[in-house]
Amino acid sequence: xxxxxxxxxxxxxxxxxxxxxxxxxxxxxxxxxxxxxxxxxxxxxxxxxxxxxxxxxxxxxxxxxxxxxxxxxxxxxxxxxxxxxxxxxxxxxxxxxxxxxxxxxxxxxxxxxxxxxxxxxxxxxxxxxxxxxxxxxxxxxxxxxxxxxxxxxxxxxxxxxxxxxxxxxxxxxxxxxxxxxxxxxxxxxxxxxxxxxxxxxxxxxxxxx
Length: 209
Prior knowledge:
Blueprint: E1 6-9, H1 11-23, E2 29-39, E3 46-57, H2 64-79, E4 84-91, H3 102-114, E5 119-123, H4 125-132, E6 141-146, E7 152-157, H5 158-161, E8 165-167, H6 172-181, H7 191-196
Parallel strand pairs: 1-3, 1-8, 4-5
Antiparallel strand pairs: 2-3, 2-4, 5-6, 6-7
Family: Belongs to the EMC8/EMC9 family.
Protein name: MPN domain-containing protein
């Protein structure tokens, strides 16, 4: 389904999911991607615009009850903005684990039933570590889409090498490095944090203010 579809991620969504992974570097993390289906650059072909990312968990990422609860609240909040869940992101716990896990595939399949052009983004822990040390300024995600045989396949390695995934604002990388310098990741709240303390804002409304 993803082969003829272009994916664009907005700056805030990209920065937010990277900061979430950096805050919990010793754990697996995951989250939802929110956006809309659009006409790709007026070409008449389909495109998916990822507008926001909602950090979910840094502990038991495969728990379906908490995922279902989060999906209900996310759809309720973003539905009023004509947005819906269009995908999922995950960073694995083990540093050298660059494979899409069974949990990610299962959650992706769940989202696919409601949004057939769903995207899965897998963060590279190796690239995250290099980014943290400011040794590289390269994208840290890989895009996976579901093919005609209902399997999730890699659509491209990172944003630079993938023709199917682009970042809308080129300034995202310099902004992210600034946030890393100031340890902005400390301010990220995920759904786990919200369930522990409902006063914490899972929407991260003030993160970029």
